[in-house]
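Raw record, unedited: Carrier domain-containing protein
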Amino acid sequence: MRGAAVDPDCPQPVAPRVALLLSPGALPVGPAERVAERPGRPSAAPVAGIQPSDMSSETSSDDERAGLPRTSDVPAFDVPLPEQLPATGVIADVLAGQLAVHDRLRAGGIRYAAILSGGASKYLARFLLGSREPVDAADLAAAAATPAVNRSRLLAAAESLLRDGAVVFVDPSPDGILGRFLAEDLASRDDAEVLFGSAASAGSLGILGGLYERGVDLDWAQVPAGDGWRVRLPGHPLHGTRCWVELPGSTQPAELAPATASSESREPGVPSDATDWLCAVLRELLHAETEIGPDDDYFDVGGNSIIAVQLVERVEETFGFRPKLLDVYERPTVADFAELLRAGSRPAADEASPHGLPPITRTDELVMSPGQERMWFHHQLVPDTTLYNYPVVNVLRGPIDVDAVKGTFEDFAERHEPLRYNLVEADGMPAVRVRPALGEFFRVVDVSGESDRVGIARELIARAAVRPFDLARDPLVRVLVVTLAPDTHVLQVVCHHCVTDGQTPGILAREIPVLYAARQEGRTAELEPLAIRYRDYARWHRGLLDSGALDHELDYWVHTLRDAPKLRLPTDFPRPPRKTFAGELAPFTVPATLLAAARTVAKRESVSLFVVLLAAFYLLLARRSGQRDLVIGTPTTGRTRRELDGLIGFFNSTVALRANLSGPATLGDLLERVRAIVLGALENQEIPFERVVHALDDQRDLSRTPVFDVLYVHQDLTSTGAANRLGTGAANRLGGGAANPFGGGETEFFDLEHSIHNAFGGLPPGTAKFDLSLITYDRSDGHDMLACFEYSTELFTQRTAAGFAAAYLEILTEVVVASARDRSIEELVVATPSPASTGASEYAVALDIPMDRPRGSAAAGYSPGAVRERLDTVPGDADVFAAWVALLSWYSGSDEVTVGLPTGVARLDLADEPAGAELRERAAAALAAPVGPVGAEAIRFGDFRPEITELALHRPEGDRAVLELAYATELFDESTARQMLTDLIRLLRGLLETPEDPVPDIAVRSIAEAEVTR
């Protein structure tokens, strides 16, 4: 049931529509827009019968004139006007500029609800709206000479648009008269905003940024880049003469052979023994220290979904055909899969798989990868964000050479170019600049002489982890060394996520010891040269997108995710209209015995451990939300080709795993279903997720993340050394018992008692990108598995997050029981949770009731107030409760209402708009059989708890004719509570008098119409 009493001051999280203002004589600012011919441009929708000419056809007392700019003020816009608009001189330049901005914004994905105009620009508006009637040059000149604007008609047109929802009016000129009028006339409206172009915001790029910030969805990949200019610089020709000093007895160093572009460029040579080849490749991919034989099981030796993708790539490269990912699961033994390789054959040219992608070749071109561009743009909107900070911190035991440590990181950055990147704006477009050196990136603090060494180090580490990066100016890697004692140091490395991912710690662990030893010994490190660089990957990936090579993947995702529902998890607090990404961690452990049982299930079902853990997460979400169609996001490494394995950079890809748990299926069926979903996602992971979001064309909701609100990240930290096999949102750690890469001794976690984030490297403290993220760390060495829920503190309390963890362990325990395979999914979903797994919001849906003041912290308790009213009759409890539920639904605009009772919780759904009598029956049933244990619900009935109650309705002992509404004085004024009680009594009377009418109709008569008359 949707109520009318919604707080007008609360911005609604629905993306506004866009109206373009073409002010007469107003020239857009910014660099010249270069737009090619525009075949078949879709027309914009007219405004409620108002034509573009209506904005300028007549004058009134409010009419004002806008002068044309001087010729010297007009830059040349390389945009041909259509032949229907034979303008010349300054007005031609003005129209060309407006046309260029129109096309630039449309190329960025903007769809106009209307185009409002005046003066000569009205003819351009008519053309853009679909008219192809030629305009007489004299009419154009006359309109330009007398560009009057009918202010009242302009306002009427704007108000007509606003009747259908919020609108952003875009005037590309900073002094456009249409924008100025609307900014003044609509200043008091919350659903209208005028966005001007300005030189400071880079013209149309700034407008696109402003629209995106206001919730409008864009397609940045389609924004045309400006032409590049080649400039000859003065210099002197140099001969390639070697000038190094040769020491006596030294040998002339051989010239480095040019790095091969890619192993894919070689003609595949089929090995003579497929089994030996497969054993060797698996050992390499798994970083296994022991031999792998023909009888070994893929999953027993550490195989999983991501390794399967890499294995399939190797098979295609070597044998000339691409097996399915499912083949790896259906033939888990090495010998069986080798038999498939021997039987395989190269497909014909016309049957080539769409996965046969071109090789990565070396290039000197510097471009951002799509993932980097997304983070760059987020940085433009929120420059001080720490959402993409990527901190890893460990204690180093043993002596270290601090100068050599600094030099080691400098050498590492020299080898891996992205660590020296800066992401800048050039001519209004994102661009990459490479620093010659890291610069001021290294800091050493000695606290060994302080009394509270650990406390000081903790503060230093915490501040460094949340210090924002300036992507255009700062080194994007920072290193902090805090000396606690001569042989004890805390090492923190913080990178911006745009130059690193979850593979980085594994590469660090391999290369840092080599570089450090070379630094100490004053020699060149002996590391294999990198065949390609990150810039080569970025250019290759963009080439795939531009060529359409990934269109089949986009089609897969659009088909898979079309009409996916939003997750409706119960929350402790109402969802804010805009996410701030504030969050915390709720750590827990999966016992080693439970983990071993999960591995047994995985092997029995020929699935990976990831699939078992993910299936349990689906069951948890289904149990908590009541939904069966669920979408969980997960990151993948994005490193599907062998030449990418050793590179530093941001390669992560995000995939959305949609599963339907409805129907008569068993747990075994669910595991098979989830396996197929995971494999399908991995087969289609190259397409950037933002392309998928744009193709789905959903209205952007600033209170949620696109497509999914929950994430699962699984980190493989097995003793084989295979790092980050699935899910790369959090980093591997160097420490926790690993060898110190800077000499003798070991590493360990730092200060876990007070800084639990240090155990989960790569998660910036105090943030949560999603409503809820499950993160698991698999060591595969007989230990407990470290895990955590990262949760939004805007939605959940710590107690609720801990309840998620307990519930997850409970469900996982049910899943791994030997007899569970044949249990129905529905039986697992609806199983009654234990008290330990029931958080505060197990059944609580926070209602967004309009308040006089925002919610504070309930931990300190509320101060109660109360208002009373005497009834003419004495209705039953079910009647009063039905009226209370209907009122809460009306006030909050929510169909689902959860109310705390003295003996449990009542949860009623009014989405079907029941009749008054039906609602009374549901209310009576809910009172007779409440669900769940007594919780901490803030809205209650028949039960008053001053420390947590926001609103509570009850009937005082001994006087059933009186209704008392208790309220938190921190949130509500007495007058508000009294009005709420008055509305309740009116609604109660309406339900009793017309029980056969739908509840929304009763509410309209009882509340909304009463509001009009009072």
